[in-house]
Design brief:
- There is one protein chain.
- By secondary structure, the chain is mainly alpha-helical.
- The chain is built from 5 helices and 2 strands; from the N terminus they run ααααββα.
- A two-stranded antiparallel ribbon has the order 1-2.
- A hairpin with a 6-residue loop joins strand 1 and strand 2.
Length: 162
């Protein structure tokens, strides 16, 4: 146990550049913590995102009562596109953390951009990081990608309806 503690303490990577810190930051950030919720809460959050953006867009774009059907379809299309953009951004951020956790060598900067260093992770830390990826990050990414595919399917459907 003491040797594991020494390995972690001797890590020269600054705290804000460690992949585990990036993971904790994503998990605790209010803009991305909804991705780790249970399935029921995740679906409720997705639905609430859709409703909030749809209502906000509807308030800004409502003009005539004659074309309500077209107005609803086009607002739904725009809202789904906004959700697709949100999901692409969140997937990219989780993928970056996954990449950094899976790397056996970490590039870090001690003080500024010109003094970059490379630190080789010890096997114990690498093993723990890869376990974290397979147990925590891969399921989140899988669910996000499945939701993104569903949103793209809906987007194509509403594009056909427009």
């Amino acid at each position: 146990m003491i040797s594991k503690l020494k390995l972690i303490l001797l890590c020269p990577v600054p705290e804000d550049q460690k992949p585990i810190t990036e993971y904790i930051g994503l998990k605790e950030n209010p803009l991305t913590n909804w991705t780790t919720l249970s399935t029921t809460n995740y679906n409720a959050k997705l639905f609430s995102f859709f409703i909030y953006w749809f209502l906000g867009l509807s308030i800004l774009t409502f003009q005539e009562k004659d074309f309500v059907g077209d107005w609803i379809i086009s607002n739904t299309f725009i809202t789904i596109n906004a959700l697709i953009f949100l999901y692409c951004t969140v997937i990219w951020r989780w993928n970056e953390v996954k990449k950094r956790l899976n790397q056996s060598r970490l590039f870090y900067e001690e003080a500024s951009w010109y003094d970059g260093q490379i630190w080789e992770k010890p096997f114990i830390i690498l093993k723990n990081d890869r376990l974290l990826v397979t147990q925590k990050i891969d399921p989140v990414l899988g669910r996000l990608i499945n939701t993104l595919i569903f949103l793209i399917y809906l987007d194509i459907l509403f594009l056909i309806l427009i």
